[in-house]
Amino acid sequence: MAFISSGYNPDKPMENRITDIGPRKYDEFYPPVIKNNKGKWLYHEILEPGVLVHVSETGDEVYTVRVGGARLMSVTHIREICEIADKHCDGYLRFTTRNNIEFMVDSKEKVEPLKQDLTSRKFDGGSFKFPVGGTGAGVTNIVHTQGWIHCHTPATDASGPVKATMDVLFDDFQDMRLPAQLRVSLACCLNMCGAVHCSDIAILGYHRKPPMLDHEYLDKMCEIPLAIASCPTAAIKPSKVELADGTKVNSVSVNEPRCMFCGNCYTMCPAMPLADDVGDGIVIMAGGKVSNRITAPKFSKVVVAFLPNNAPLWPETTDCIKKIVEAYAEGARKYERVGEWAERIGWERFFEKCELEFTHHLIDDFRDPAYYTWRQTTQFKF
Amino acid sequence: MAKHETPLLDQLESGPWPSFVSDLKQEAEARAKNEKGIDYQIPVDVCDDLLGVLELSFKHGRTHWKHGGIVGVFGYGGGVIGRYCDQPQMFPGVAHFHTMRVNQPAGKFYTTEYLKQLCDLWDLRGSGLTNMHGSTGDIILLGTTTPQLEEIFFELTHNMNQDLGGSGSNLRTPSDCVGQARCEWSCYDTQALCHDLTVEYQDELHRPAFPYKFKFKFDGCPNCCVASIARADISFIGTWRDDIKIDQEAVAAYVGGEVPPNGGAHSGRDWGPFDIQKEVIGLCPTECMWLEGGKLMIDDRECTRCMHCISVMPRALRIGDDRGCSILVGAKAPILDGAQMGSLLVPFIKVEEPYDEIKEVIESIWDYWMEEGKNRERLGELMKRQGFQRLLEMTNIKAAPQHVQEPRHNPYIFWKEEEVEGGFGRDVDEFRKHHQR
User: Torsion angle, CA of B383/B389/B390/B392, rounded to 10 degrees?
Assistant: First the structure.
């Protein structure tokens, strides 16, 4: 391998340097039908799962075919996406917030060939490359984080459990039988890069063992005051430790019963690792939403305190999610989101319908907001 | 022949959902074959070794990535995340595996020309693996080595007119919904505002000067497709002040069953004939709708713009014409002090170029947070610590009932001296003339 210079001169980094230019301007990338009708759209309709039409006051229509996919994507795969967009969509496409790809065409005749092309393509392993769906009262793509593929703090993988879950929910990706849309999200630790805390169903990686202390290296690798300050429950204190060889070193001690396993100390101090094969696993949360439709946005609630990291297929997690989805499909009224359904029937009934065990872990005991989640009425269901 | 055996990962190749394992393998193979004769600038077996280290994580139930080191491009404090493998001898191809965040265009529309250019760059100088997109919105280029960082930045800026996104304690890359580009409900041009503010605040985005991360997100309507209300320090959510526009003929078409309700979103099940009373009027949270002589009536003054009726009957009901946005502040994920939803700060503001009024709100919030925020304290946490009144004071916004769900439960009001007639200074001797000890 010979180093190929881009033109950058490391001896003169400021020479010809271009900075602070920001992103490319959005309208360079609008397909003509979007450019001509921006702000003029009248209404839309989902013609079938994964296919939408938007109708403009100019009489123009744009047909969108939405496909799911892994957000981890190779350039080979992106080039294939480009090949499809060149063939059917004049070289334009877009991505959605939930990592779906949208192929847009300007007339109805172009939809069927595009759809057929997309659904005919499969990976060597047998999975679809471009499954059409993810619209309306169904399940769409799971937004997620990096997990074991690229992150230093995860308590579970991301791409693996997402693939396993979407395989189990695949029929609902391509159907619209649910009472409302159902959003599943995954964050591989409670830093929640994926902001899963307002999802109908959230899969959350969680550690359950306090950090190990690499005393010999702690003071060398970390700023001890920062590690102490990072702890939200003030469980970390400075301490002097005598190593096996008799050397005394500055380190920290952890008041273990006060640890809520957030991993914030590890983020600040690499000599305090938390990860553990049996300690780590998955929390299931349910009933959140971000839309203001009918009821206000809601946080997801913890409904299962722990499921093991049973790689590669996470069967306990996918079983649990499937049970919640089926109970919701069966019990909720049209337009009702998971959280609205649970609130209408009562959370005691939610656990019964979803066949989930209620344990003490599910009662909030973290600071003031906890009180507002206890039951302050005689109204409850047996 | 694969470099590493991956029996666990292989089980994620079957099943209908697109397999990231199959995609990683296809990229590993493409690099090994190298049909285009590319002089790869990072190890050719990077994807093989990524599969290998991931298989090891599946076996161990633990990650094999270490903390990032300080890597980046000259003059920027963000946009590059350093990443090193904790088993570099076993997996030398991913020993250094840094991420670059590339600022996506607003709305995430692309031409294939642009994407192919990006693919060529990432083939040559990176792993060939990406995230389209990261959770915040950036294009994520996943995996390269330190010597390539400046080269990639040079090519991005010189050949693609493209900059990096944010990371660390700075303004994170703003992101928006599809907006007016392809949605009839968008109350302002989310792409225009997102792009304008991104360009205006390039310094804040590239050079960390904040107590912690800070996020802007732009939703065109209260349906909140980019989840701004749950995850942005400042969320800009489209809304309107006048009346919902009603097309009574289209209402009749919905009632008559000529048009599928909810834009056809419920077609997967037979829910019975559309019942406007039950499905629209009965579900209106403010009960401000009724039928009169077959016509749908709305008492718009009582409407809270929840979007339900408009979503159920998109052909009959349209957002009003006096449009703008509401500004909510302080949303964040749970770390550290628990999750927070955005709280309403500005009930209504016009969204018109050059957006001076909006920038005034943003900058007054930043001044306050940079002055008072502690290290790693998000705006929402500062608001909780010092109270909503303090935020109103610092942004010069007058308190209104719209700011609260309900008034306070306790009378422990921190009266200020200037609010109480005569102030706090009193003469105890004068008091004692009338009140014995």
Answer: 100
pLDDT digits (tens, 9 = 90+) for B319-362: 999 999 999 999 998 877 789 999 999 999 999 999 999 999 99
- Same domain assignment for residues B332 and B300: no
Convert the pLDDT of each residue in B256-297 to its tens digit.
Answer: 999 999 999 999 999 999 999 999 999 999 999 999 999 999
Residue with tokens 């991104």: B198
Structural domains counted in chain B? 3
Residues B29 and B135 in one domain: yes
Residue of A150, A198, A292 with shortest CB distance to B142: A150
Cα–Cα dist B64/B57, whole Å:
6
Residues B279 and B395 in one domain: no
The last residue of one of the domains, among B159, B192, B213, is B159
Residues 269-308 of A with CB under 8 A from B: 270, 275-278, 280, 288, 290-295, 297, 299
The mean of the pLDDT values for chain A is: 96
Contact predicate B127/B157, CB 8 Å: no
Say whether both B265 and B285 belong to one domain.
yes
* Same structural domain, B40 and B134: yes
Cis geometry, peptide bond prior to residue A312 (ω within 30 degrees of 0): yes
Q: Identify whether residues B124 and B201 lie together within a single domain.
A: no
Closest CA to B27 of B126, B97, B117: B126
Could you tell me if residue B166 is inside a domain? no
Residue A122 CB neighbours (<10 A): 16
State the number of CA atoms in the 13 A half-sphere of B420 facing the CB. Answer: 9
Query: What CATH number should be reported for the domain holding residue B192?
Result: 3.30.413.10
**What's B144's domain CATH number?**
3.30.70.2500
Could you tell me if residue B420 is inside a domain?
Answer: no
Q: Which of B163, B14, B178, B177 is nearest to B75 (CA)?
A: B163
Chain B residues inside the 8 Å CB shell of A62: 182
Tell me whether residue B414 is in a domain. Answer: no
- Model confidence pLDDT, tens digit, residues B4-16: 999 999 999 999 9
Tell me which residue in B20, B83, B105 faces A29 most closely, judged by beta carbons.
B105
DSSP E strands in B103-164: the ranges are 109-111, 129-132, 139-142
Residues B299 and B328 in one domain: no
Angle at B81 between CA B78 and CA B87, to 5 degrees: 160
Provide the sign of the torsion angle of the four alpha carbons A186, A192, A195, A201, taken in this order: positive
Residue at B391 is within a domain: yes
Beta-ladder partners of B343: B329
Which CATH number do you get for residue B293? Answer: 3.30.70.20
Model pTM?
Answer: 0.96
Q: Is B315 helix (H, G, I), strand (E, B) or coil?
A: coil
Q: Is B258 in the same domain as B113? A: no
B69 touching A (Cβ < 8 Å): no
Q: How close is the nearest chain A Cα to the Cα of B118, in Å?
A: 9
Q: How far is A95 from chain B (nearest CA, A)?
A: 5
Q: Which domain holds residue B307?
A: 245-318
Task: Flag whether the ipTM exceeds 0.95.
Answer: yes
> How big is the CA angle at B322 (ends B321 and B323), to the nearest 5 degrees?
95
d(CA B19, nearest CA chain A) in Å: 6
pLDDT tens digits, one per residue of B398-414 = 999 999 999 999 999 99
Which of the listed residues B284, B318, B352 is the one where a domain comes to its end? B318
Query: Which of B23, B39, B105 has its CB closest to that of A26?
Result: B105
- List the one residue out of A147, A173, A152 whose CA is nearest residue A71: A147
**What chain B residue is nearest to A69 in terms of C-alpha separation?**
B18
In chain B, which residues have their Cβ closer than 8 Å to the Cβ of A369?
338
| Tens digits of residue pLDDT in B153-173 | 999 999 999 999 999 999 999
